[in-house]
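so i finally got all the pieces together for this one. its three components total, 626 residues if u count the protein bits. some of the lines might not be protein, just check the labels. i wanna see the whole assembly predicted at once instead of chain by chain like last time, that was a mess tbh
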Amino acid sequence: MNAMTLLLRNLIRGPSTVPFPFGPAWTPARMRGRIEFDLAACTGCRACEQVCAPGAIRFDKTPEGLRFMMWHNSCVFCGMCNFYCPTDAIHQSNDWHMAHAVGDKFDMAIREVIPYTACTGCGNKALASAPNPVGVVPPFTPEEIEQQRHLCPACRKKALAERGAQP
Amino acid sequence: MLASNTPLAVLLFPGGLFALGLGLMLKGLDRRVAARLQGRVGPPLAQPFYDLVKLGRKRTMVPDIAAQPVFLGAPLIGAVTMLLAAALVPIPGVYAPNPMLGDLLVLLYLLAVPAVVLMIGGSASGSPFGAIGFSREMALMIAYEGPLVLVVAAVALRTGSFSLNDIVAYQKAHGSFLFDPVMWPALLAFLAFYPANLGIVPFDIPEAETEVLEGPLLEYSGPALGLFKVMSALKAVVVLGLGVALFFPLAPDGVAGLIVHAVKLVVMMLIGVTFLRVSMGRMRIDQAFSFFLKWPLALSIASLAIVALA
Amino acid sequence: MTLLQTLTEKARQLAVRSPWIYRINAGSCNGCDVECATTALIPRYDVERLGCQYCGSPRHADIVLITGPLTTRVKEDVLRVFAEVPDPKVTVAVGVCPISGGIFRESYAVHAPVDQYLPVDINVPGCPPRPQAIIEGVAQAIALWRERI
């Protein structure tokens, strides 16, 4: 009897099939999908490289700067990089439309370079990465972030000490 | 009434293209309705037709260890036999088969051929799954052929003839057997028989995908597999048409009779095939075998006894 | 066009609507296999609308779904079963394991990427990919299949 009521209910209510691919598909807002990388917010701490489970993230030191590379075909979309990134420079969107032809395999990658710059304090070569905000009280303002970006690590420490915040 | 001009009857109407079209439409309707009953959308109605065309465009790969003539000949024999059988089934009000072609007994023999051909093709392919399918199909055939023969004997005894035309004429004169309580055990036994003959869940253990990797059909591909699909579509038309002719053949003449026949086939299929397919699980071969040796066999023996006494 | 050409073209257009799917598990953890099963079996993501049908034999297949990094244990069998799929066929690598090895990339028993042994056509990254993502990959495979049949 249970089967009969179930079949009748299916007939009356109609199919419960989602319309995709002939219509839009609902995506939850917190779905762990494609990785997005915000170059300006990256501190170059390489925590994401450390915690990446399949090793999809790689940092290389090149003459131009610190190169960030991640490959979506190695990523397992676990969200660890997002969790450990201090500035959320690397984070996941909820985009899951990543099916591609095999010829585009190596295009499913993010390649960005944090450039070297000359330190405004002492003139040495410095990496133009965002400052690490962990433990900084009160938090950096956007102008301070921009200022610290163009300082070498020694000058950054000096600026922090002058500011009176915990390093 | 259209008398049968034999080659045309076999190739065009009611055998051949007409039966193939009707059979494919029945299968498409079955898939669509089964999907709706399960809460899905389901394939378009012409899907079996697309499947057949696609199979025709691929190539048949023959295994190295297969007995090639038997492997390739088996589906051909099955499809041709079902073409002939479709010309033997009367469409009441429209088509009466030529008595020279054959009667009910010939039809019974022809109906046994698809199962045999499936078995032989499966074992000729040389694969162990084919061998398993062979033995299971044989066991199931033994189980369901018994009730079929007894039901046919009961109907023939009641009407006094083995000719399908005479059976249809008798029911025109005395009322169809659907409303005759004496024939109800036979009707029930036939209702139990035809899902097994058509290879429908719960009786499709010989060619189950999840059990024996499709059994005898495992090694077939391309046009040979297409011929098996043709055979199965034609068999559906033949078996359901036989059921209609045996139990409720009353229909008006002409095109209306054709439409009524199609509607009857659809109703029989929806009850015995689609509804059963979506609501039951598959029986094991020993369960299916013992099922047939219990109620359907008892019902068919009882129907024969009742008809003999009445 | 001659009559034969017209008929062949018409037959091709009809044949395109019935791609049959076969799934090969090349040492997968079964996550992607479960997602593949959900695209076929449950009413919510019905793949039969597209004319697809999961078949039980490689000889009936048109679209081959491969899951799993190619482990050493099944490598020979996978290659043998793949050779039984008749042409024309389209191969879809489901999940990141067949594309790069995924999380098992540095294992000694894994022979990813699969496309150094088999001709793969479509990649569907994800671990596992969403059923909708697999359907999207299958839809792209059907588009490729239309050109090959």
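Chain A touches chain C through 28 residues (CB under 8 Å).
The beta strands of chain A are 35-37, 57-62, 65-71, 90-92, 100-101, 109-118, 125-127.
anyway lmk what u think
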